[in-house]
Design goal:
Layout (H helix, E strand, L loop, with lengths): L3 E3 L4 H11 L10 E11 L2 E9 L12 H13 L4 E11 L19 H8 L2 E10 L5 E5 H4 L6 H4 L1 H4 L10 H8 E3 L4 H10 L9 E9 L3 E6 L11 H13 L4 E10 L9 E3 L3 H10 L6 E6 L2 E7 H4 L10 E3 L1
Parallel strand pairs: 4-5, 10-12
Antiparallel strand pairs: 1-3, 2-3, 2-4, 5-6, 7-9, 8-9, 8-10, 11-14, 12-13
Length: 325
């Protein structure tokens, strides 16, 4: 349960954290473990550290990378005001250990193009990204170098992102409570938690957040992260990534979904948002089966209770975003 830390960390501490996280990825196909840590700024503080690991899915497009896992935690905890100010990435086959004679122990693994775009959406061109080998060798680049002439919401809709990093600096306990809580929790407590999250919804104007109850007695949250190139992280992907970073292995026993719109996308009274089929596929990977309870919440409270299989019947298949209760 070590996917967030507050306070200045040394290079040795970050390196050991990256190594410890290598036990957590869900990698049944590739066997290639990636761990990532991002240092973030919010308000006057720039010492919030968030960890992530890669989570594979049978539909490869629905997998999340280690960097996306760290971004999921960062946005879920800090919201739209969060800004990445430094990052570290480590990757190698899971069975390789530091000191092994295998060349993978000394190999540098860099961010893929997808993750470079994701990082650029929350960072500046001068943000440093460090590639760390299993044996501790470090190579440093910047966002501007690994993604020149980048495209982000700063170009797309600059007025909406001008205050990035200028929010109120939250205390560590409040950050942790946004990510993870020990149960049991009431529906009222879960709905209050969901409403406290701030997904990145600049393009669609529709924000979605999720809370999952795990078989270990903990509840974990995830907030949707939209990206200017439309390679978004869904709320379910974010919650699953956060659970993997915290625990490694787990089973989802229950799920709550809250959706709200703003401006012309604001939900009319009595409406609720549903999960797309892709999100249901991600949940299926980590549940005991298609009868997983799924609670769709509206502003008035519980809107409708579905199972994973029955939720597929009302999953949106077009830009008609909301279903009538």
């Amino acid at each position: 349960m070590d996917h967030f830390r507050k306070g200045n960390l040394s290079g040795a501490q970050v390196y050991q954290w990256l190594l410890d996280l290598r036990a957590h990825p869900h990698i049944p196909e590739s066997g290639f473990a990636v761990s990532a840590i991002f240092r973030a700024r919010c308000g006057t503080d720039d010492d919030y550290y968030f960890a992530g690991v890669n989570v594979e899915n049978m539909d490869h497009r629905l997998s999340t990378h280690g960097e996306e896992g760290a971004i999921s935690a960062l946005v879920t905890a800090l919201g739209k005001q969060a800004e990445i100010v430094e990052g570290w990435v480590m990757g190698a086959p899971r069975h390789i250990k530091p000191g092994d004679k295998d060349p993978s122990a000394d190999a540098q693994v860099s961010c893929c193009g997808k993750c470079r775009q994701q990082i650029a959406g929350l960072a500046s061109e001068n943000t440093k990204i460090h590639y760390v080998t299993l044996n501790g060798e470090v190579t440093t680049t910047t966002v501007g170098k690994f993604l020149p002439d980048l495209f982000s919401f700063r170009q797309f809709i600059p007025d909406l992102v001008r205050d990035q990093g200028k929010g109120v600096a939250p205390v560590a306990d409040d950050v942790q409570k946004k990510l993870l809580r020990r149960g049991p929790l009431t529906d009222k407590e879960i709905q209050s938690w969901l409403k406290s999250l701030e997904p990145v919804d600049y393009a669609s104007k529709i924000s979605q957040s999720v809370v999952l109850k795990l078989d270990n007695g903990f509840y974990v949250a995830g907030a949707r992260v939209e990206e200017a190139a439309f390679i978004d992280i869904s709320a379910v992907q974010a919650a699953i990534a956060n659970a993997a970073s915290a625990f490694g292995t787990f089973t989802v026993e229950n799920a709550w979904v809250y959706t709200c719109g703003r401006d012309e996308k604001k939900l009319p009274a009595g409406n609720f948002g549903t999960l797309p089929m892709s999100a249901l596929q991600v949940l299926l990977e980590f549940s005991k089966g298609e009868m997983l309870p799924l609670h769709y919440l509206g502003d008035g409270g519980l809107a409708v209770l579905k199972t994973l299989i029955s939720a597929a019947e009302i999953a949106p298949v077009s830009h008609r975003a909301f279903q009538k209760v």
